[in-house]
Give the backbone structure.
Amino acid sequence: MIKYKAILTLFLSLLSVNAAFSAEPAPAVISGLTAVDMPYDVGNAVMLRWAINPSDTPDTVYVVHASSQQAGAWVEADRFSASAKTGDDIELPFWAWDGSAMEHAVKVELNNIFGESAAGSVFRFKVSALEKGLLKAESAPVPATPVGNWFRLDRLNNIVLLIVIVIVFFWAVSHAKRKGLFIRRIAGLDAIDEAIGRATEMGKPIYYVPGIGTMSSISTIASAFILGEVSKKVAQYDSQIKVPHYDPIVMTVCKEIVKQSYMEAGRPDSYREDINFFVSQDQFSYAASVDGMISREKPAACFFMGYFMAESLLLAEVGATSGAIQIAGTDIESQLPFFFTACDYTLIGEELYAAGAYLSKEPMLLSALKVQDFGKLVVMVSVFFGIILVAAGAALHWDSFVNVILNLFKAY
Amino acid sequence: MLKEKLEKFFKIDRRWIFLLLAIVLFAPIMKPIGLPNKTISRDAQNAYTFMDNIPAGSFVLFSLDYDPSTRPELHPQAMAMVRHAFKRDLRVGVVTFIAGSTGLISQIFAKVPGEYNKVNGTDYVIFPYQANYAAVMTQMGSDLYGIYDKDQDGRDARTLPVMKGVKNYKDMALVVDITGTSILDQWVAFVGDKFNVPVVGGVTAISQPGYGPYLQTKQLKGLLGGMKGAAEYESLIKEPGKGTSGIDSLNLAHLLVLILIMTSNIILLIIRYL
Amino acid sequence: MKFIKKQIPLMIVMVVGLLTLASYYVPNKHSVDYIELLSKWENIVMAFAFLLGLISLFYSHYNKISRKTDGWGYSLFVYIGFLGMVVPAMMNGGRQMVDGRLTMLGWSFNYIYNALSATMFAVLAFYIVSTAYRSFRIKSKQAFVLFLAAFVLILGKVPLGQIIWDFLLGWTHATVSEVIEWIMSVPAVAGKRGIMIGISIGAIVTSLKIIFGIERQYMGKD
């Protein structure tokens, strides 16, 4: 038995001598390679980690191979220089990632390499280090199975903030009826009465333009709320309102709202089906058509509330020259200047959202405005202290402290 | 007396202003004055430098998403950037998410490739219009042939020489989006950030200021804004075109606006303090 | 009846709203599939709603024609335009080019639709200039600051303006593009961010109001 072993050893050592005399030395071994499922993802990626080798030179290049087979079938997954892709480069906050600059950390996205649905299958990985194109070191293959995760721990800061806002929201709403709430006057909304009164006196229609948004944009939803209040007043004054539409779903919703307002005002007989009408789903066709109507009918008042793009000035300028009182409101900040110059009153972003509550004077809705103020307070306080802390930390070179603060306020 | 006369100026029929602007715009187009295009903005220079440093033979994806309404500003930008890509022997792929731009894309590629002896299918490829951009952008992250299995002329995209070795964003050196819509924001958010592809944009002058934050964070490598951006790029690649010829009109129109604002304010001052 | 018209829709809003919100925090494949499914449904609903829009359009213009209201002649063009685009599109399967030649649809698209929409956008230039003349008045100190910023920006946008700047203010060694860069990246971005933050918070609160059924005007009150 021992004899056989001795022969085998002799044979092996002869082989290795043979290898030593051949053209290349045997590559070293990269040890400590781990491959685990990439946390907080849909299950398409694997995280490879191994320690940085101090003897790496700037010429060293790491190549990551992946395989979906039991043996062989290696596919190159990544290639980078030795100084890149350390644990510090992974974009995850401190509470969800413990990487350091002393290790390499590589995220391998398997769906990019092997196509869709990588979750649940076993993959194998190996890492090799090249120096000037020659193999210097190689790791043993390690297996890993990517799985779909159930919680994005990296978004913890986000969800905590959300929960706080929801709690404040419910607190504000449930305390709504106890006492009155002061709300600053919004001139543009107070002018709505004046505009409708003027239209009644002149016997001319009012145009309510909800813009080119779909029902999924908040400004369009807010616009629909305002339309409800405006059309109620129009019905009370027995004036006329016309609502040209860009989106058919918005039109259908607005029809319901206007009908309801007429009923609440006690004038269901004055309601007509063609108050809301569809014009076109093409931006400039819509603008041209509404411009045409405004310049032909010379309305007493025009409301532009909702989502607007380049057509904002096209509409507002024609309204201005036709002599109408104009009230606009949008959350598209690039269009605000145009409304400021061409309209009598403009609601800026959040004023538009608040308008429904402001006009309806319903305590539940009004109290939700408090939440908006609370949110702004949170932002103001965090910006103020954030700036001071980060500046102080940077001045005193407390890098990890600065990192913690930055992580806390970052969206992942 | 003078005050009343001046007040009349405020109530001037706006059609006079329209006429004045029309003359200022038309005259230089008919008879160019040749005002110099002096400075190059930082963002246009960055866009040029980025494209100029891509190794020859790399694949660049153009997303041309503008329709005829914004053509005067964006078409020259697209022309200039495609010219630059061909000049540098880059492979060019074109996609679009706006139905109205298909005609404009054919106009570019009916003209430009011939100037550089580029062949459809070998040096460039035009993919057909797709509607749902968010879905397409995401799909191209894994396998672009899942959406674009055929080119515009119905040829199998996989076998085209221009597509050799190109499967998803990892195989692209740059994405250029020229648009009058907010699709550029989506390229930055859905593709640039997520798949680590450099994105360069071309937008109308009116929406240019809105991209400041993206440029600050380098999420956009460069940006051409309006006709001026086109003119700048044309002068960088030394191929004067429509953008450069429009600069005269642009110059004079801007000055007209300045003069009008100043006049109205001087009149206001006189009225108030007289 | 109230249950069907009120409670059920509110429940759908709440469940779908909460699930969609949760999908932001759950990276699992199920949540990805759910979002994809929702967007497919949205597309389908959209297509049917478009039909509604078309019916409304035809109905309102039919009314105008039958009542002979002012400008009823324009309403005829709705039908002419519609048929003029749809019939050729049906005839050649929606293609604008066949064998390198423009179809009827391609022709109307290129030479009518293109021209018309380009015109509408171009009209903007005229309106901007006339609005600038009529409304850009320095009536307060703030307006003066705005005027200064606008003046520098307009000047710097065009080469001729840059030449004028260098001629008049060249001694300051600050080029106009540096000044513009500062204006655009400091005060302009600061203002923009302020508005954006306000808008985002408003959007969050409005969404919460809708998800929890506090704001329900969009489905009629009762």
Chain B touches chain C through 50 residues (CB under 8 Å). Strands of chain B lie at 59-65, 91-95, 124-126, 174-179, 199-203, 222-225.
